[in-house]
Amino acid sequence: MRRLREEWAAIAEYTKLTPFQQYQDLLEYELQQIPSKSDLDGAAVGIITLQEIYKLYPQNITTDPSTGTTVHLSFDQTYHLGEVAYTMGSYQHAFLWFLRCLPKIKEDKNADILKQLTFKYLGLSAYHFGNLPYAIYFTQQRVNLDLTNLEARLDLTSTRKRQLTCRYSTVGENPRLMYAPVKQEEEWDKPPIMRYHNVISETEIEHLKNCSRPRLQRFKVNSNDNPVTFNRVSQSTWLSEEDPVVFRVIQRLSDITGMDMESADLLEVLNYGIGGHFGPHYDTGKLDESSDGYRIATIMIYLSDVSVGGATVFPNIGASLKPQKGTAVMWYNLLRNGQVDEQSLHAGCPVFRGSKWIATKWIRERGQEFRRRCALSETE
Questions:
Q1: pLDDT tens, the chain, 380 aa long
Q2: Which of 202, 164, 200, 203 is nearest to 184 (CA)?
C-alpha cells in the first residue's frame, strides 16, 4: 500500500513535464483514488494491534510461517511502523521496530540524521517502558554522534537522574551513625557523585566563616610572573584541625564517607562573590613531599545557598550540583587503578546573585588502600 502511493505519486510528478494536460488530469484523479496517508496510518495501527493482542514480534509480521517467505521492509516502512506504535503508546513494539531500522540505514550523507532520529525514539521508547539502561545507552549514542546536540545531552541527564536513589546509611554500621544514619542522595551514578544532607549545623557554619573572614586572600598560582589567575576568581584560606569545631566536622566527614582523613589536606574555606568562578579542572593535585599520593577524592561542603548561579558542573558527563547549604558532596578524582578519571573534570559556575561559601577537603591516596580497593581490571 505504501509502495503504491509513493511510486504513483512519483510517476504523477514526473509526468507533469508532458504537454498533454488531459493526461496530467487523469493521473491526478487516479492519485486521489489510491490509499492516502491516513490509510497508511490506519494499516499500521492494525498491524500494531495484531502484535499487542497476539503477542507478535516484528519477524512474525514480516515472515509467512507457512512458506517461510520474508517481506523485506525499507527503512521508511519500518520507521513508520515504529512511529505509529510510539504514538499509540505501545512503546515496547515501537522499540522493536526502531531497532530493526538501524541495519537498514545506508551510509550516505543522511546517515547521521537518520541515526539521530532512530536513537532518539529508541531511547524514549525504552524510557517509557521502564528500561533505563537501554534508555541511557541509546541517548548516549545520540550524544556520541553529535557532541553539540544540546537536546540529547539534556535528555541523557534527565534520564540518568530518573534511576538515582536516596537512602539512610550507617556506612558499614559505623557506631556513630547507628542511631542517626546519614542521609545519602545519589547525584550521579557513573562516576558516583554522592550528596550528604544535614552534615553541618548552622552554628558550625558560622564558626567556619568567622574564622576564615580575617584570613581570606585572593587565589594565586605558583608563578612569579603572574601570581593572580583569572581561571579561578575567589578568596580562600586554610583551617587547622587544632580548632575543635574543625576537628569535629572532619571526623563527621570521615564517618559519613568511610574515608581515612589522616593524610588528607587541611580544610580549605572559599568564598566566591558576584562573578566568582573556577574554570574546568581536575582535583588530583601534585604529589606532596610526604608521598601521601594524589588526591583520590574531593569532599565539598556548601556553607551557603546561592540565589542564582554558582553550581558545580561536570561538563564531560552533564552533571550539575546546585549549592545547598548544610550538605556535602563527594566524588572520586582517580580510578581504582590510580589513573586520573577524565570524567571528574569539573568547574564552579560564576555566581550571578548572592555569595557562595564552600569548604573543601581533599583526600589523599595513603590510608585508603582497604577503603577503596584496586579493581581487577586495568581500565577501572
A1: 666 566 656 666 666 655 556 656 666 656 566 667 788 888 899 999 999 999 999 999 999 888 888 889 999 999 999 999 999 999 999 999 999 999 999 877 788 899 999 999 999 999 899 888 898 899 889 988 887 787 877 777 777 777 788 999 999 899 999 999 999 999 998 899 999 999 999 999 999 999 999 999 886 554 444 444 557 778 999 999 999 999 999 999 999 999 999 999 999 999 999 999 999 999 998 776 567 899 999 999 999 999 999 999 998 888 899 999 999 999 999 999 889 999 999 999 999 999 999 999 999 999 998 998 887 777 77
A2: 164
| Residue whose grid cell is 562573590 | 273
3-state SS class at 231: coil
The Cα–Cα gap between 56 and 69 comes to 17
Contact (Cβ atoms closer than 8 angstroms) between residue 38 and residue 80 = no
The answer to whether 92 and 55 have CB atoms below 8 angstroms apart is no
C-alpha–C-alpha distance, residues 3 and 188, integer Å: 47
Kindly report whether the global pTM for this prediction surpasses the value 0.90: no
Half-sphere exposure of residue 38, counting CA atoms within 13 Å on the CB side?
Answer: 1
